[in-house]
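Let's practice the habit of predicting before peeking. Look at the sequence and jot down your guess about where helices and strands might fall. Then scroll down.
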Amino acid sequence: MATTDRPGIRPPAVAGAMETPTGVATAAPRRLAMFDALRVRDFRLLWFGLLVSNIGTWMQMIGQGWLVLQLTNSPFWLGMVAFSRAVPVIAFSLFAGVIADRVDRRRLLLVTQSTVGILALLLAVLTSLGVVRLWQIMLIGFLSAGVMSFDMPARQALVPDMVGKDRLMNAVGLNSAAFNGAGIVGPSLAGLVIPVLGVAGCFYLNAVSYLAVVAAVWALRTRGKGGARSGGMWDSLTEGLRFIRRNRVVFALFALVAIPSLLGRPYQQLMPVFARDVLGSGPQGYGALMAASGVGALIGALLTASFGQFGRKGLIMLGATVAFGLVLVGFALSRHFWLSLGLLVLAGGGSTLYMGAVNTLLQTTVPADFRGRIMSVYSLILGGFMPLGGMLLGSAASLIGSVSLVVAVGGAAIVLIALAIAAIVPALRGLE
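Done guessing? Here is the structure:
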């Protein structure tokens, strides 16, 4: 494990950044640049691999949403497909965090990324043969999410081992930029590929994209092995949960991830309905709407990468959460395509900024030995609550016949709950 993670040890001060054999840059404290973490060899490799893979992931997300709508013509089933991905995340994420604190995280990533790539290829083959059914989409989604529940805490816990505490928020922002920058390219490519190659083309391209991240992980020098523990899995799990329960600030941070993930961020899963039924556009319009959200998310990610040098991250987090909820209400009520595009840019930016701030504050607040378990809870909320929210919002939209009303109410609830949490736990506003 990198020396920057050991309590009380700081890297030696040198003139300019230098890399150790593990690829961790050491430098004297200084003003961080927007792309500072990319100076670190291992982080740079992983970042570029994830960028390529994320483009494929976004293409599959767009293609799958359109395929499900074609097969079912129902927002309810869009939500249920999302829910099928939530079940394994809820079931396995906490135990995955315990494992991430015990094993070689690089080796675990090789297994998870390779497996998800194979599952993407299976979905592509079934679709291109014309035999794909809804239950197959849900089963492959279930298996992929189960594998990724082990991938996410290990990958996020590995980042501080690569870059150290000083570059952590910068690295979090850049990782978010890799995903959300791909959110611009991926949906746009999907909008072009679907009319020509069908949704199966999106799935094939996603499968190929996993080769990039597997090659990057293979080349990493950082292993990021968690500390050895004499207790059992259950003891380690309950120890991590007790830490969260007893720390009021950490508990509040998780609440600020959970509420928007449940009531707001599922708007993306319902985007095919907004595109077709609310705004009257086809696959190209659907791709443009998702790309607009991706543009905003990229801007938010780059802002996150720049905020490592600023204090009062708690206020930034709270302000971005409230702004996200307000913009979501505006998007839900919009009936003009170009206005909706602009509001989605703002929604994507607010969502990414508050999540990046929470991610950074969690990892800098908790001890290194708890990091895998803490990030597994973070992954559980992001990967489990958002699909669960998709099922709830999709079901509500089908029941009352208005997807716009459901999303607007969710956005308003985010604003009110975030303000209440800020009042109940004032220490959040002073987090640096």
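How did you do? Residues 34-220+233-430 form a domain with the Growth Hormone; Chain: A; fold (CATH 1.20.1250.20).
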